[in-house]
Amino acid sequence: MTANPLRAASGTTATLNTRVLKDGELAYNTKTEELHVGDGVTLGGRPISSEVDGDDIDVTATGSTTARSLADRFAEQFHVADYGAVGDGTTNDAPAIIAAIAAAAAKGGGDIIFEPMTYAIGAEIAITTSNIHLYGRGGDKVHTVGTVGAQAATELKWTGSAGGTMISFPSSTGAGNQIIFGGGGEDIYLNGQASGGVGIKLRSLWGGRFRDLLIYNFTTAQVDVGVVGTLGESESTQHCTFEDMNLRATIDAPNADGFLLDGDYTTVANTSLCRFDRCSVFVRDGTEYNLQNCDNNFFESCRAYVTGSGSGVVMHGSNAAAQDVARGNVFMHFSGDSTATIVSKGTSTYTYPAYADRFFCIDHDNSVAIPTIEPGSPCYWDRTDGVSGGGRAFVKLALGDNTTNADDARADQTIETLIIRNA
């Protein structure tokens, strides 16, 4: 049965098939699918008069002790449709989504719910408060055949000005301000339409969570992670997680990057201590994992595929300062194919080289290329076939070796992460 409208009326005027209902009588008309009530009928302990809304109905959850109105229960989540979003792929739904976010922010945070529809986004959706999480009904992976995003349930489609950002999480700049915390997005397809500049931009966010997102054809970067200029505490974007992310920028956005990680050396703040799990990136002439001012980020089981002249991973140095380079980032089980080049930039390109980045178990079975390590840029790597280079990451000692042996071995290493000493 479809949703049934409630028609409330008072005793002497309420009728069903021309029969006047008695006080307290309730009847349902199966032909018109209308519920008719007489005086004295209550719902949730409240009398029904001329109309019923969520405030008139109290419910008690199974196993709980306190009844609450349906209106209060509906307000626990923030459906964009309740704030005017249409989801027809044409009407600009950004104002409605922003209104839903504002309502959630007023309560200290909340879940923003999208239906399985296509939402046109004509302006940036900036989330400047903590604990705002966007939930769709399903994203998609990067397919090598057919239409990109064809299996996605919820799509956000950029229809705004060229080069714009679709979704951002920026802390509010100010010497007395705190960094925003939490929030993120899940199960959504973000379509840049080769017009939007950035799909998701993070600026000084702590503990954000992003999962199962397909981000496609933004012209600058699919995900841009960095910092704001000034806060009352550290501006570094840290402890954010990116799981099962699928980024693609190919034919229509040839120079775009996948992930871009950066910072601001003047404030000694950058992207650090973030985790990337099972992310797949396809680009053409851009860089799939573009590491600039960032350190101690961890990438596990991530993949890269380049269709043009782009690169899989580039660790950049800097001409400004030693703390403005990529350093100490770790890739574990990095995969792709022969196009997924890895480059560690040294003194032949920059004054201050990238250093101490590491690649463990590069996928030799799929012919991922050996890293290109420029002079002055120590970068350890090893492959799944046991071949390694760039200096050892671990010092090997035999049973019975002493501290002298360990110190001698240490002196031979370009990079060192762990020393095991057996006195």
Number of strands: 43
- Could you list the spans in which at least 5 consecutive residues all have pLDDT below 50? 1-18, 392-397, 409-423
Overall mean pLDDT score? Answer: 84
Q: What class would the helix/strand composition place it in?
A: mainly beta
| Portion in strands | 35-45%
Major sheet: 19 strands, mixed
Give Rg in angstroms: 28 Å
End-to-end distance:
79 Å
Overall spatial form:
globular
Give the proportion of residues in helices.
Answer: under 10%
Count the DSSP helices. 3
Short descriptors:
mainly beta; 19-stranded mixed beta sheet; 9-stranded parallel beta sheet; 43 strands; disordered N terminus; disordered C terminus
Describe the structure.
With 423 residues, the protein is mostly beta strands. Helix content is 6%, strand content 36%. The strands form eight sheets. The chain has a 19-stranded mixed β-sheet that branches. It has a nine-stranded parallel β-sheet with strand order 14-17-20-23-27-31-35-39-41. A four-stranded parallel β-sheet has the order 24-28-32-36, with no helix packed on it. A hairpin with a 4-residue loop joins strand 4 (26-29) and strand 5. It is globular. Residues 1-18, 392-397 and 409-423 have low confidence and may be disordered.
Topology:
Layout (H helix, E strand, L loop, with lengths): L5 E3 L6 E2 L2 E2 L5 E4 L4 E4 L4 E2 L2 E2 L10 E2 L8 E2 H5 L3 E2 L8 E5 L1 H13 L3 E4 L4 E4 L3 E2 L5 E4 L19 E4 L6 E6 L9 E2 L2 E8 L6 E6 L1 E2 L2 E8 L4 E6 L10 E2 L2 E3 L2 E4 L7 E5 L9 E2 L2 E3 L2 E4 L3 E5 L2 E2 L2 E3 L2 E4 L4 E5 L10 E2 L2 E3 L2 E2 L5 E3 L12 E6 L9 E2 L5 E5 L4 E2 L13 H9 L12
Parallel strand pairs: 1-5, 10-12, 11-13, 12-15, 13-16, 14-17, 15-19, 16-19, 17-20, 18-21, 19-22, 20-23, 22-25, 22-26, 23-27, 24-28, 25-29, 26-30, 27-31, 28-32, 29-33, 30-34, 31-35, 32-36, 33-37, 34-38, 35-39, 37-40, 39-41, 40-42
Antiparallel strand pairs: 2-3, 4-5, 6-7, 8-9, 42-43
